[in-house]
Amino acid sequence: MHYKKYEPWLYLAPALVALVLVFGYPIVRLVILSLQRTSGGVVIFAGLTNYRSLFKDDVFIMAIRNNLSLLICVPIMVVVALILAVFLFEKMRGWQFYRTTLFLPYLLPITVVGLIFSYIFQLSGVLNDFLKFIGLDILALDWLGSTKLALPTLMFVIIWKEVGFGIVLFLARLMSVEEELFDAAKIDGANWWQLQWYITVPQLSTVIEFFSVVSVITMLSWVFNYVYVMTGGGPGNSTMVTELYVYLSGFRYNQMNIASAVSVLLLFFTGIFIFLELRLRERVGVPEAAS
Amino acid sequence: MSVQDKIFRIISAITRQGIVILATVLSLFPVYFMTVSSFKTKAEYIANKWGFPSSLSTKNFVTALAGEKFFIRFANSTILTVGAVAISLVIACFAAYAFARMDFAGKRTLFNLILSLMVIPPVVMIVPLFIAMVRWGMVNTYHGTILIYTGLLLPFSIYLMTNFFQTIPKEIIDAAYIDGCSNFGVFAQILVPLSTPAIITLVVVNALWVWNELLIALIFMQRDELKTLMVGIAAMRSRNYVDIPATMAGLLIATIPIVVVYMFGQRYFIRGLIGGAVK
To answer: What global pTM score does this model have?
Structure first.
């Protein structure tokens, strides 16, 4: 032992102070706020009133429904990332170049990307100009301006941006698989599909699970930037999500207690997946890049 | 190999290459669109949206830099990024030293607790944080916002540095103790210098995160002269008049630092991202 008993705590102290200030205290305060209400400048205990009024609010229900709809992106992202990673892994000519470019969207700020895409998907945007150019006038729709299409368009952008992480993750894992495994299967006469189904997918199962859980967390609680920049929750609340609901109720309509109640619910539901992610992280050992 | 087999092989190779090329074109198109648009005039943009510009006019860049208080926003983003990344790095290294090289009661539990903070969405904390920051007079200040970013960066940073410190052979450290090194000496003269690759990874990942962050910046840097680049960009959408080419020029300038950081640290970035996946 080269150190005294209290010494570890000296090294930990600055981190613990910062974490308590930014995570610990706010989370405790959050729960208290969600059970209070301000009436006539006086703070009163309100029990579950805030929560009850939430579930009577159609906009909040819509936000939850939209977050759940976004979960459709997860299997799509897994499949797309898997296909592209396998293709690149098979030493396609120029695979390193493709890896760099396919990963690029993951790095760009959502704010920048969102704005570019909103110009692409405008009614008079480049996509519709192109569709008219090739004679598909009927497909030139108001991608972000219609209540039916705005959410799917948003999903496209989210997938576009987040899938690169999956590709790089899967590719790295594939490269560490013993080559003999593939060779042996080929000698046994496995065709390409069998090779993928019996070797690739099982070998990748832990990273696939990890990527799925991280993506579920993203869809439930990390999509604020996309929505804020591209649609602002509209048209007609058709792209409202819980994060935006927290932001609007807390900072535009000044209903801090309602915003707190939503935050508590959000924390509770992502908490389940956070727990799952932790279990997986131990098995896979993957550090996550902040996104 | 039969002719049929050969034809099948060629077709499947073309299909695969085709799918990858399509994905690449999709990945690059927005960046391409942003770049070509930023050189066009408004009239040219309306007439020709996806083609090359007829001339390389830099007028839009001048407009972008003149309007929107571009330099102030750029400076604000830089101050927050440098401040939060530097402070969180120092604090995380100290904590990681305790986790990786010392034993104390409750170590495992504390480490797992910090790990679990990594995926807590910041949106959950903003309401109580805002109320507290108002009381402490720290809304609309650099140090207040840097404190929040530092806290948010810490879980991942501690995790990465702890893992790295654990890989440094015990023999090196023991030798340093025999040479009369103090604990702090081992930390500052052995562990930290040997961890340069991990530190670069962390700096690149964290810098990109802070630079790109929107929600915290939106709430805690509300005064106009304190707004960050991303907040400024997000506001462009809702402006009444829209000069798309000039906006694109602004976006391009805002993206360049990211591309530079990525090119400089790509190797480290991908390594940090997938680190333990390759065992």
So the answer is: 0.89
